[in-house]
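Q: Two folds, back to back.
A: First:
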Amino acid sequence: PRSVTITGEVSVPGRYTLLTKNDRVTDLIARAGILLENGYLPGAQLYRTENGLGRIDLDLPEAVDNPLGNEDVLLRPGDSLHVPVYSPTVVVRGAVNSPVTVLYREGQEFDYYIAAAGGFRADAEEGRTSVRFANGLTRTRSKFLFWSSYPTPDAGGQITVPAKDPADRIDKVALTTGLVSILGSLATIFVIIVSNSSTP
């Protein structure tokens, strides 16, 4: 049957038959009734079983504000939409000094949550830090010329800081010893050359 499912924080969750080939996400939302008090539209996730596509990147608030727009995607049989409960937290994990779940503060940016976790560890690979938003979308640091910026997490989001691969680390002691040995050899050769050139 041509049906889709909506679960989570809506007044009438369940399975709905697609009425036309042009049914969209906002049509499903309208049929499922009002959003419950604890529902969080920005965290909504759309899954598509057709062709094994899995999660579809969706900005549900944008779809609701602009029906028939780009975000108001056409539904396919087997689609499922989940509207989660609002979670006022941001999880910070990985290579930080104190992994922690931080209360979400509107207006606070990436650095605030890293600071709440005690900052980056010495082995943190900061450039590959990722932010996963409540709707499942994940982003990493953006760079332009000499500037870079991290995404700002939303409520229910998660920051993951990977650690550097120990195999990729340079043995500083061995490197320093090697350089000193090379410089010593070059100095010896230089002295010999100078001595020979000054001999009559």
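A: Second:
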Amino acid sequence: MKIIDARIRLPYEFRPPVEGVDLSIYHSQYDQVLNVSENRERTFEDLKQDMKKANIEHGIIHAEYEYGDHADVLNERVAQLAMKEPDLFSGFGTISMDNLQPAKANKQLEQVKKFGLLGINIQPSFFNIPIDHKKLYAVYSKAEELGLIVAIHTGVNYSTAHPLKYEHPLLLDQVACDFPNLIIIACHASWPWVPEIAALARKHPNLYLDFGGLAPKYIGVPGSGWDVLYKFMNNLLSDQLLFATDWPVFSMERAVNEWKGLNLKKEALEKILGGNAMQLIKKTKEGLASR
């Protein structure tokens, strides 16, 4: 069983320093809920060791960020890691979300493609932008044209300065309708709006769900909010689910073990842990090469 972690955060050692930002807005409640600070400084070597311990054969590094504007630097550094060890890593770039300008974002998308990255990761709500904002439509259009995937933060966030209303997965519906050939990944699988994201995934075959930053064991717990999605994991939605950890937010070894403990069918588990991501990587690389 090949295991692929579909979303790993670019280690902090490769991120430029952020100035003029009150980080407590972003970190304090995240530390209360997820104990993020104790893992924030884990290194690239730690990442490779964690992958080895969890028997993860490939990881997709994302240039996701919640504050500042270092998109170009992040893209370069993700690309460098992916090019240095292509058997072990692929990558997702990003765009400048602070003072979002479609023309600049589209140039960044073109650079992301030139770097050989699979797509972009954006977190609109951290910049007080709804998923279906008109400025993002130019970005979605360009990504669809280039054959790039768009991974979007959905569901709950723990920032005390950014409302949840911009994270609602129903905002993805119109986007998916307007860009039917765009592959979208709903990061964090949109909890607590699980019935909504399950319905959207059933409606839109190009919509995928990743489970990064979540404790998989709760997915199988009745009343946890995951009930509808858990029911469809073995059948209707098994081709659209992606194993992810949001490393270093969540332990890789723990995530793998908890997925294996969910009593899913062998075929479904193999798809979730790696099969779906493998097909998605292959499909995307073939599409990028043909454009």
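Q: And?
A: The mean pLDDT is 92.
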